[in-house]
Amino acid sequence: MARALFLEGMLCPLVLCLTPLQAQEGPKVFISVDMEGITDVINWDETGSEGSDYEYHRTAMTKEVNAAIEGALEAGAAEIIVRDSHGSARNLIPDELNRNAKLLRDWSGGPLGMMEGIDRTFDAVIFVGYHAKAGTKDATLDHTMSGSIYDLKVNGVSLPEAGWNGLIAGSYNVPVIFVAGDKAICEQARAIFGNIETVVVKEGIGEASLNLHPKKSRELIKAGVKKALGRLAEFKPLKYHPPFTIEVQFKNERQAYRNSWYPGAERVGDWGVSYTSNEFMDLMRFLMLAR
Ligand SMILES: [Zn+2]
Question: Higher pLDDT residue, 200 or 6?
Protein backbone atom coordinates (compact mmCIF):
# COMPACT_ATOMS: atom_id res chain seq x y z
CA MET A 1 0.00 0.00 0.00
CA ALA A 2 2.74 2.45 0.97
CA ARG A 3 4.71 1.67 -2.21
CA ALA A 4 1.64 2.18 -4.38
CA LEU A 5 0.97 5.52 -2.76
CA PHE A 6 4.60 6.57 -3.30
CA LEU A 7 4.46 5.68 -6.99
CA GLU A 8 1.14 7.45 -7.37
CA GLY A 9 2.61 10.55 -5.78
CA MET A 10 5.67 10.42 -8.02
CA LEU A 11 3.69 9.96 -11.22
CA CYS A 12 0.63 12.11 -10.69
CA PRO A 13 0.03 14.78 -13.30
CA LEU A 14 0.37 18.38 -12.09
CA VAL A 15 -3.39 18.98 -11.99
CA LEU A 16 -3.92 16.06 -9.59
CA CYS A 17 -1.05 17.14 -7.36
CA LEU A 18 -2.71 20.52 -6.89
CA THR A 19 -6.06 19.07 -5.80
CA PRO A 20 -5.32 18.93 -2.06
CA LEU A 21 -4.35 22.60 -2.03
CA GLN A 22 -7.44 23.63 -3.98
CA ALA A 23 -9.67 21.65 -1.62
CA GLN A 24 -8.67 23.89 1.29
CA GLU A 25 -9.94 27.10 -0.27
CA GLY A 26 -13.60 26.95 0.70
CA PRO A 27 -15.21 26.33 4.10
CA LYS A 28 -15.61 22.82 5.48
CA VAL A 29 -19.23 22.30 6.52
CA PHE A 30 -20.81 19.86 8.97
CA ILE A 31 -24.56 19.18 8.55
CA SER A 32 -26.42 17.32 11.32
CA VAL A 33 -29.86 16.16 10.17
CA ASP A 34 -32.75 15.19 12.42
CA MET A 35 -36.18 14.17 11.15
CA GLU A 36 -38.84 15.64 13.45
CA GLY A 37 -38.24 19.12 12.02
CA ILE A 38 -38.51 18.15 8.34
CA THR A 39 -41.44 19.70 6.45
CA ASP A 40 -44.68 17.70 6.89
CA VAL A 41 -43.28 15.27 9.50
CA ILE A 42 -45.84 15.65 12.28
CA ASN A 43 -46.31 12.21 13.88
CA TRP A 44 -43.93 9.61 15.34
CA ASP A 45 -45.36 7.07 12.86
CA GLU A 46 -43.68 9.03 10.10
CA THR A 47 -40.22 8.94 11.68
CA GLY A 48 -39.46 5.21 11.83
CA SER A 49 -39.29 2.27 9.42
CA GLU A 50 -42.40 0.68 10.94
CA GLY A 51 -44.56 3.59 9.74
CA SER A 52 -46.35 3.24 6.40
CA ASP A 53 -45.40 6.77 5.27
CA TYR A 54 -41.76 6.55 6.42
CA GLU A 55 -40.39 6.07 2.89
CA TYR A 56 -42.05 9.28 1.73
CA HIS A 57 -40.71 11.27 4.67
CA ARG A 58 -37.16 9.91 4.50
CA THR A 59 -37.14 10.95 0.83
CA ALA A 60 -38.33 14.43 1.86
CA MET A 61 -35.60 14.48 4.53
CA THR A 62 -32.98 13.63 1.90
CA LYS A 63 -34.26 16.39 -0.42
CA GLU A 64 -34.18 18.94 2.41
CA VAL A 65 -30.55 18.05 3.17
CA ASN A 66 -29.74 18.33 -0.52
CA ALA A 67 -31.12 21.88 -0.48
CA ALA A 68 -28.70 22.72 2.36
CA ILE A 69 -25.83 21.08 0.45
CA GLU A 70 -26.67 23.04 -2.70
CA GLY A 71 -26.70 26.28 -0.72
CA ALA A 72 -23.33 25.41 0.80
CA LEU A 73 -21.85 24.56 -2.60
CA GLU A 74 -23.09 27.84 -4.09
CA ALA A 75 -21.39 29.62 -1.18
CA GLY A 76 -18.13 27.88 -2.08
CA ALA A 77 -18.00 25.02 0.43
CA ALA A 78 -15.01 22.81 -0.27
CA GLU A 79 -16.03 19.84 1.84
CA ILE A 80 -19.37 18.76 3.31
CA ILE A 81 -20.05 16.00 5.84
CA VAL A 82 -23.67 15.00 6.50
CA ARG A 83 -24.40 13.29 9.80
CA ASP A 84 -27.71 11.33 9.83
CA SER A 85 -28.82 12.07 13.41
CA HIS A 86 -32.28 10.56 13.76
CA GLY A 87 -33.43 7.25 15.24
CA SER A 88 -31.46 4.49 13.55
CA ALA A 89 -29.20 7.14 11.94
CA ARG A 90 -29.93 5.26 8.71
CA ASN A 91 -32.71 7.40 7.27
CA LEU A 92 -31.11 9.42 4.47
CA ILE A 93 -31.10 7.64 1.11
CA PRO A 94 -27.41 7.51 0.12
CA ASP A 95 -27.81 7.31 -3.64
CA GLU A 96 -30.19 10.30 -3.65
CA LEU A 97 -27.90 12.51 -1.59
CA ASN A 98 -25.92 15.18 -3.44
CA ARG A 99 -22.72 13.49 -4.65
CA ASN A 100 -20.52 16.28 -3.25
CA ALA A 101 -21.20 15.33 0.37
CA LYS A 102 -20.04 12.40 2.47
CA LEU A 103 -22.63 10.69 4.68
CA LEU A 104 -22.06 9.44 8.23
CA ARG A 105 -24.56 6.72 9.19
CA ASP A 106 -25.40 4.71 12.35
CA TRP A 107 -24.23 5.29 15.93
CA SER A 108 -20.70 4.66 17.15
CA GLY A 109 -21.80 4.49 20.80
CA GLY A 110 -19.43 7.36 21.60
CA PRO A 111 -20.26 10.68 23.26
CA LEU A 112 -20.58 12.88 20.14
CA GLY A 113 -23.91 11.35 19.10
CA MET A 114 -25.65 13.67 16.65
CA MET A 115 -22.32 15.48 16.16
CA GLU A 116 -20.22 12.39 15.44
CA GLY A 117 -17.60 13.34 12.86
CA ILE A 118 -17.11 16.95 14.02
CA ASP A 119 -13.59 18.11 14.70
CA ARG A 120 -11.53 21.32 14.71
CA THR A 121 -11.02 21.27 10.93
CA PHE A 122 -14.64 22.35 10.27
CA ASP A 123 -15.64 25.98 9.70
CA ALA A 124 -19.41 25.83 10.18
CA VAL A 125 -22.24 23.67 11.56
CA ILE A 126 -25.72 23.49 10.02
CA PHE A 127 -28.79 21.84 11.58
CA VAL A 128 -31.61 20.60 9.33
CA GLY A 129 -34.84 18.96 10.52
CA TYR A 130 -34.33 20.00 14.14
CA HIS A 131 -37.09 20.20 16.79
CA ALA A 132 -37.81 22.02 20.05
CA LYS A 133 -36.88 20.77 23.52
CA ALA A 134 -39.23 18.62 25.59
CA GLY A 135 -42.20 20.51 27.03
CA THR A 136 -42.34 23.30 24.42
CA LYS A 137 -45.75 24.78 23.61
CA ASP A 138 -46.96 24.63 19.98
CA ALA A 139 -43.97 22.55 18.90
CA THR A 140 -43.91 19.53 16.58
CA LEU A 141 -42.64 16.30 18.17
CA ASP A 142 -40.78 18.23 20.88
CA HIS A 143 -38.46 16.09 22.97
CA THR A 144 -34.92 16.07 24.32
CA MET A 145 -32.52 13.28 23.36
CA SER A 146 -33.98 9.81 23.90
CA GLY A 147 -37.30 11.10 25.19
CA SER A 148 -36.58 9.99 28.77
CA ILE A 149 -35.24 13.46 29.63
CA TYR A 150 -37.65 16.22 30.63
CA ASP A 151 -35.04 18.99 30.78
CA LEU A 152 -31.34 19.41 30.12
CA LYS A 153 -29.43 22.40 31.47
CA VAL A 154 -25.80 23.44 31.14
CA ASN A 155 -24.64 26.18 33.49
CA GLY A 156 -28.30 26.94 34.27
CA VAL A 157 -29.39 27.31 30.62
CA SER A 158 -32.18 24.95 29.50
CA LEU A 159 -31.19 23.54 26.10
CA PRO A 160 -32.80 21.79 23.15
CA GLU A 161 -30.69 19.22 21.32
CA ALA A 162 -29.50 22.03 19.02
CA GLY A 163 -28.05 23.84 22.05
CA TRP A 164 -26.26 20.78 23.43
CA ASN A 165 -24.94 19.92 19.96
CA GLY A 166 -23.90 23.55 19.52
CA LEU A 167 -21.84 23.30 22.71
CA ILE A 168 -20.17 20.16 21.35
CA ALA A 169 -19.34 22.07 18.16
CA GLY A 170 -18.14 24.99 20.30
CA SER A 171 -15.80 22.71 22.21
CA TYR A 172 -14.13 22.10 18.82
CA ASN A 173 -14.23 25.84 18.05
CA VAL A 174 -16.86 25.51 15.31
CA PRO A 175 -19.88 27.90 15.17
CA VAL A 176 -23.49 26.96 14.43
CA ILE A 177 -24.62 29.23 11.59
CA PHE A 178 -27.98 27.87 10.39
CA VAL A 179 -31.00 25.98 11.76
CA ALA A 180 -34.06 24.69 9.87
CA GLY A 181 -37.06 23.17 11.64
CA ASP A 182 -40.34 24.26 13.17
CA LYS A 183 -40.99 27.78 14.45
CA ALA A 184 -40.37 26.74 18.06
CA ILE A 185 -36.83 25.40 17.50
CA CYS A 186 -35.92 28.38 15.35
CA GLU A 187 -36.91 30.69 18.24
CA GLN A 188 -34.98 28.56 20.74
CA ALA A 189 -31.94 28.47 18.45
CA ARG A 190 -31.84 32.26 18.06
CA ALA A 191 -32.14 32.65 21.84
CA ILE A 192 -29.07 30.44 22.26
CA PHE A 193 -26.91 31.28 19.24
CA GLY A 194 -27.94 34.87 18.54
CA ASN A 195 -28.47 36.21 15.05
CA ILE A 196 -27.90 33.04 13.03
CA GLU A 197 -29.87 32.22 9.88
CA THR A 198 -33.01 30.14 10.48
CA VAL A 199 -35.72 28.72 8.22
CA VAL A 200 -39.15 27.94 9.70
CA VAL A 201 -40.67 25.11 7.65
CA LYS A 202 -43.74 24.57 9.87
CA GLU A 203 -45.59 26.01 12.83
CA GLY A 204 -47.33 24.06 15.57
CA ILE A 205 -50.92 24.66 16.63
CA GLY A 206 -50.99 22.42 19.67
CA GLU A 207 -50.05 19.05 18.20
CA ALA A 208 -51.24 20.03 14.72
CA SER A 209 -48.79 21.64 12.32
CA LEU A 210 -49.07 24.15 9.50
CA ASN A 211 -46.44 23.35 6.85
CA LEU A 212 -44.85 25.17 3.95
CA HIS A 213 -44.97 23.35 0.65
CA PRO A 214 -41.84 21.13 0.72
CA LYS A 215 -40.50 22.74 -2.45
CA LYS A 216 -40.80 26.16 -0.80
CA SER A 217 -38.94 24.84 2.27
CA ARG A 218 -36.13 23.64 0.05
CA GLU A 219 -35.86 26.99 -1.74
CA LEU A 220 -35.63 28.80 1.60
CA ILE A 221 -33.11 26.33 3.09
CA LYS A 222 -30.83 26.58 0.05
CA ALA A 223 -30.95 30.39 0.16
CA GLY A 224 -30.57 30.48 3.97
CA VAL A 225 -27.50 28.25 4.04
CA LYS A 226 -25.88 30.26 1.26
CA LYS A 227 -26.59 33.49 3.15
CA ALA A 228 -25.28 32.05 6.44
CA LEU A 229 -21.99 30.97 4.86
CA GLY A 230 -21.71 34.43 3.32
CA ARG A 231 -21.87 35.81 6.88
CA LEU A 232 -19.46 33.21 8.30
CA ALA A 233 -17.06 35.76 9.77
CA GLU A 234 -19.86 37.11 12.02
CA PHE A 235 -20.45 33.87 13.95
CA LYS A 236 -18.69 32.71 17.10
CA PRO A 237 -18.54 29.18 18.52
CA LEU A 238 -20.95 28.63 21.45
CA LYS A 239 -18.89 28.35 24.62
CA TYR A 240 -19.83 28.56 28.29
CA HIS A 241 -17.27 29.30 30.96
CA PRO A 242 -15.88 26.51 33.16
CA PRO A 243 -16.66 25.00 35.56
CA PHE A 244 -19.38 23.32 33.51
CA THR A 245 -22.44 21.97 35.28
CA ILE A 246 -24.92 19.70 33.53
CA GLU A 247 -28.31 19.14 35.16
CA VAL A 248 -30.68 16.52 33.79
CA GLN A 249 -34.30 16.18 34.90
CA PHE A 250 -35.62 12.73 34.05
CA LYS A 251 -39.19 11.61 33.44
CA ASN A 252 -39.05 8.90 36.14
CA GLU A 253 -37.33 8.42 39.45
CA ARG A 254 -35.60 5.15 38.51
CA GLN A 255 -33.37 7.00 36.03
CA ALA A 256 -32.67 9.81 38.50
CA TYR A 257 -31.68 7.32 41.19
CA ARG A 258 -29.54 5.15 38.86
CA ASN A 259 -27.70 8.09 37.27
CA SER A 260 -27.01 9.66 40.67
CA TRP A 261 -24.49 6.78 41.10
CA TYR A 262 -22.30 8.17 38.29
CA PRO A 263 -18.97 9.12 39.96
CA GLY A 264 -19.20 12.76 41.06
CA ALA A 265 -22.92 13.14 40.23
CA GLU A 266 -25.43 14.57 42.71
CA ARG A 267 -29.16 14.25 43.07
CA VAL A 268 -30.99 17.55 42.34
CA GLY A 269 -34.64 17.93 43.28
CA ASP A 270 -36.96 14.94 43.04
CA TRP A 271 -36.00 13.46 39.65
CA GLY A 272 -32.85 15.34 38.67
CA VAL A 273 -29.09 14.69 38.64
CA SER A 274 -26.26 17.19 38.25
CA TYR A 275 -22.58 16.78 37.45
CA THR A 276 -19.78 19.39 37.36
CA SER A 277 -16.35 19.41 35.70
CA ASN A 278 -13.86 21.89 34.28
CA GLU A 279 -13.71 19.78 31.10
CA PHE A 280 -16.67 19.84 28.71
CA MET A 281 -15.71 16.36 27.49
CA ASP A 282 -16.53 15.07 30.99
CA LEU A 283 -20.11 16.36 30.55
CA MET A 284 -20.32 14.59 27.19
CA ARG A 285 -19.13 11.40 28.87
CA PHE A 286 -21.73 11.82 31.66
CA LEU A 287 -24.60 12.32 29.19
CA MET A 288 -23.46 9.39 27.06
CA LEU A 289 -23.91 7.11 30.07
CA ALA A 290 -26.85 8.89 31.76
CA ARG A 291 -29.80 7.15 30.12
ZN1 LIG B 1 -34.97 12.70 15.79
Answer: 200
